[in-house]
Amino acid sequence: MDITINTPALLFPAISLVMLAYTNRFLALSSxxxxxxxxxxxxxxxxxxxxxxxxxxxxxxxxxxxQALGVSSFLCCILCMYMIYLEATFLAHLIFAVSMLSFSAxxxxxxxxxxxxxxxxxxELSDMDDLEDPSVxxxxxxxxxx
Length: 146
Prior knowledge:
Blueprint: H1 6-9, H2 11-42, H3 47-85, H4 89-125, H5 136-145
């Protein structure tokens, strides 16, 4: 397969949008951590909040890794374009493969973080006994029955 200088450039918009989403997740999570930290200091039973803060600390590490993998993917795309410019085809192919693997790994870590995020929200909602948790099919059936 022959790649041109446009091939790695095709990833630029995708990587940029994903990095923006990662940054937004980081900002929202850091804001929530600050709020929980204040609650932790003033709460008479801090063990309740301790589990949430522990979960968020792990999620922050995941977001950091997502961002690092995204940035490395971006840098590899730029380096790949430079190798294509230098007509170092083998290196360009190799670096582009690393870029794609890095981007894929970033998305996998993002999926893990999203899973943890939904578990944290379910944990917060668990103390509301009167709320039911319908399955997706039950929810759709309920919408069409109206």
